[in-house]
């Protein structure tokens, strides 16, 4: 418990960053979606090039895998720029599964912390919101990718508020038990 109480301010910063990201996504939804797809495409393309180069520099035992992985990364990067709509839909599914997995982990963490801190329900609610968000994305993927950006923005703000509330609870817990 000492590790989390000493770094309460990291939870606070994470919450503030989440709220800032959420507001930016709501203000500029089209730009947010375009940036997400573009950054992913650039990442896949550049990563593929570097893996391909590494494949030509390594020994025979890892060369084939690096070259294949590099070519695949380059193709994914190019496909992202040629078909940004399909990439957007794929990102929608990645975000959905990420939200569900992290939400479940936050719920588990909240349940485990219930004996250590008061009001652990804030972490559990943040996790539940994350799971609900992920499920909604899976149920209605065609409802529009701009609506995904809006959902991401709203989720980020609500999750940020939950993180900030948790940060202050952890900070107050530290003071109550006299930890440094």
TrEMBL record:
Keyword Transmembrane in annotation: yes
Protein keywords: Membrane, Transmembrane, Transmembrane helix
What Pfam family does this protein match (any one)? DUF308
* Keyword Transmembrane helix in record: yes
Membrane-crossing ranges are 7-27, 33-53, 65-83, 89-109, 121-142, 148-170
In terms of InterPro entries, this protein maps to: Acid_resist_chaperone_HdeD, DUF308_memb
- The protein here is known as HdeD family acid-resistance protein
